[in-house]
Amino acid sequence: MIIPIRCFSCGRPVAQDWETFKKKVAEGEEAGKVLTELGLERYCCRALFLGHVDLIEQISKFKKS
Questions:
Q1: β-bridge mates for residue 6, sequence order
Q2: Among 3, 5, 8, 48, who pairs with 18 as Cys (CB 3.0-4.6 Å)?
Q3: Of 18, 20, 13, 23, whose CA–CA distance to 52 is shortest?
C-alpha cells in the first residue's frame, strides 16, 4: 500500500525518504548503499523499506463508485 509515516518498531519518521530510495534504486544503485546514504541504520527501518510493496496503483483501480 502506502509507505508508513513512521517505522513500526522504533518510531523514526521514514516516509520522507521513500521517493528518494525508489528513484535511486530504479537508476541502478544498490539498495543497501542507498539506505545507508539516507541514514537508515536500524534493521527495523531497513526492513520496512526492503519489504515494502507499492500497491497503491493497482488498488486504486478498484475503488467504489
A1: 13
A2: 3
A3: 18
| Grid cell of 38 as nine digits | 539516507
b/e per residue, 4-23, with b = 16+ CB within 10 A?
eeebeeeeeebeebbeebee
10 Å CB burial of residue 49 (0-12, 13-18, 19+) is: buried
Task: Enter the C-alpha cell of residue 7.
Answer: 517505522
pTM, two decimals, is 0.81
Q: Are 6 and 12 in contact (CB under 8 A)?
A: yes
Residue 10, SS3 per DSSP: coil
